[in-house]
Design a protein that fits this description.
The chain has 8 helices and 7 strands. The protein has a single domain, classed as Vaccinia Virus protein VP39 (Rossmann fold), CATH 3.40.50.150.
């Protein structure tokens, strides 16, 4: 699958073209995910880097997209292309945000997370939640390129099989990012959560420990 400029321009145009929106999403990631992370952090599938931007001094991003890696480097985010080149037991935390649903080999990738984590290290996985499951006609590829829909049972089972201990499963609600980013951040965050609950728009956060 290709995750080059065309993909990011279509799916993540605001992150590419609007610095204020990029910073807003970085602050949202800080509030939503970083409470579960510790120490030196590796983000697998870092994309354009917004999730680690505010903590980039102590982070490394991994992504298959040369275009995304170049965009990260413009923001002085350290990044590489291949997790297999990372030494074992080198990180305190791994963040994987909206990535596993794209991958053909999630079990192998999670084994890689386990390998690069220190003993007692923490894995934070964020996945989209979908309750859509109905027959479709004339199927054509979705721009988002999702291969899987996950639920807590399936991702927990996979993590347990690799050797992780599950310490948290929760929903994180949010809707209207592109409409609310110009507001005061605390107000925007409050409205994101309220609108997310009203619209039932949410993501799954799963935390495991090695």
């Amino acid at each position: 699958m290709s995750y080059g400029k065309e993909y990011h321009s279509e799916v993540h145009d605001n992150l590419l073209s609007n610095e204020k929106y990029y910073l807003f999403r970085a602050k949202c990631a800080d509030k939503s995910y970083w409470k579960y992370l510790k120490g030196r952090v590796l983000e697998f599938g870092c994309g354009l880097g917004q999730n680690i931007f505010l903590h980039k001094e102590n982070c490394l991003g991994i992504d298959v997209s040369d275009f995304a890696l170049e965009e990260c480097k413009k923001k002085n985010i350290k990044c590489e292309k291949d997790i297999k080149k990372i030494e074992s037991g080198n990180f305190d935390s791994v963040l994987c945000c909206h990535v596993l649903e794209h991958l053909e080999n999630p079990y192998e990738i999670i084994e890689g997370f386990y390998r690069v984590l220190k003993s007692g290290g923490r894995l934070v996985i964020v996945l989209p939640f979908s309750n859509k499951n109905k027959p479709v006609r004339n199927f054509k590829s979705d721009v988002a390129k999702h291969l899987y829909n996950w639920n807590f049972n399936s991702i927990n089972e996979l993590l347990n099989n690799v050797g992780f201990k599950i310490v948290l499963n929760k929903f994180n609600y949010g809707y209207g990012y592109s409409k609310l980013y110009n507001l005061n951040f605390k107000l925007a965050l409050f409205l994101l959560q309220i609108l997310g609950k009203l619209k039932n728009r949410k993501e799954m956060i799963i935390v495991g420990e090695k």
